[in-house]
Each structure stands twice: as C-alpha cells, then as structure tokens.
DUF5309 domain-containing protein (Microbulbifer okhotskensis), 297 residues
Amino acid sequence: MTTTYEVVGNAEDIDSIIHSVSTVDTPMHNLARKGKADGILVQWQQRELAPPGENARVEGADAGAAGYTATEMLNNYTQIMEKVFEISTSQEAVKSHGRKSEIRDQGTVKAKELKRDVEYAFTGDWDAAPNGGAVGTARRMKSAGYQINADNRVDASGSALDKDNMETYILDGLQKTYEAGSQVDTVYLTPTQSRIWSDIARAEGRTRDVKGSTVVNFVDTYETPFGPVAIALSRYQDPETILGVDSDLWQVDTLQKTKLESLPKTGHAKKMMYSTELTLKCLNNKGSFMVNGVNYS
C-alpha cells in the first residue's frame, strides 16, 4: 500500500489567506478635526474669558475702565514618519501563497503600521520630550497629554487603580474642564482600564449603550453630573494615563500627505517608502483633561 509518507511531490496545503491579529485602531486621529499645516512649526491662539463677577453700574454714569482679554500663543512641531520596505526582483517574480504581489502586500502592511505609529505619537508616550529638530535630529511633536494644561491633570500615583478610585479620578477631570468652560465628550481608556471600568458599570447596574461605529470602539455611555460622556477603547495609549477630550478642540494638521514612493533602484531589488508629516493641535489646553500616574499595583 502506498501512503502519503512515501510519496514525493504531493501538493502543499497552504491557506491562501494571510491572517493577522494586529488591528488598526486610531480613535484620537479619527475623532479629531483635520487641517493643513503650512510650516514645520504650527502655531495657533487660545483665549480664556475673564471669570464672571458682579457687574452693576449707576444710571447715567460714565463708562468704566476699558479692559482687554489677551490671547495666548500655542505651538507644536510637525513630525516626519516613514515605513520602508524592500523586495528583491526575484521575490516579486515568484508565485507566493496568499498574495499576488509581494510589493502590494507589503505596501498594505506598512500603510497600516504607519497609521498605528501616528496614533502612538498622539497618545502612546505622553511625556516624551518634544523638539524642533536639528541637523541629524528628528523633530518630535507634543503628544496629546503633553499639551493638556497642568491645571487639568489629575494625579493618580497615590494608589493602584481600581473601581473605587477610577470614577473619582474621571469625575475630577470632568469637573476641571467643565469649570474651565468646556464639555468633554469622550474618555479614552486602555484595555486594562476598560476592564476596571466594566466592573464599575456592573456595580451600578448599568447596561452598556454601545454605539455602532466603524472608526472608534465605544464601550459605554457614561451619564455624569457634567453631561453624557462616551467611553472609548484606545489600544496604543500610554498605560499611565486616562484621557478626557472635547473632540472639537483637537485637530490634526498635515504638512505632507501620506504617500507611497519608489526609491532609487541600485540593484536587483525595489525599495519603497510610505511617509507622512503632520502634527496634533490642542486648540485650547483647558478643554480636555488627563489622569496621569496611573498604576496597577
């Protein structure tokens, strides 16, 4: 009897689909407004109104002293990002399982990786030092957390995050932004934080009101004294932070749109590069909050 163990030349059984577990979740980028940058240093202005107070004048009196509410200049640097891949001409010519073209396949992969890197620049390392660059030094933008006003930061370093203090931290942040005149619409949580949040929701007997959305993974709607807030999952966010944002006060300005370019060929290979240059603007730094120093032990 002849079996498969003796026969040479049987066809391979290889799935024609390449399966990936690395998803592309970019909620901060998706919800922010979009704009255009005209230089490597992007600047904008914010203004804070004078606090309300007693205002009564005597009938017939002359006008009082004139006042002026000044603006404050804010800025951020554009950051160049790239993903490079190189495929030999032989590899492009041979028949491969799961893709017709190695160049096209790698192009798709690198485009997704670039999007993830952009989101990480926004939320992944909140206190990474920004810089304007120099010869031999890359420019680095300010992250979302770095741009939030220090008065709107809630310190959570005193104890491990749990369902008893997590809601307090978030409410403290919401109160800070509300008193500053803003209305936070979204709170971003990491996967670990979202599990703690689910314990809070269950303890309060709430049912999850999940929005049908293809761009942001909303996991809950939170009714607060300061208005309803969406709770969203942020996959690449710094685990030491919780972010609460007014989405209308964040903008992504692009200097160089994402593009795929062929680099000069010097041999039997084709080298390609995906690149972009952009920055993140917090249009008013008291319109959002951050819980920082989050720890789990």
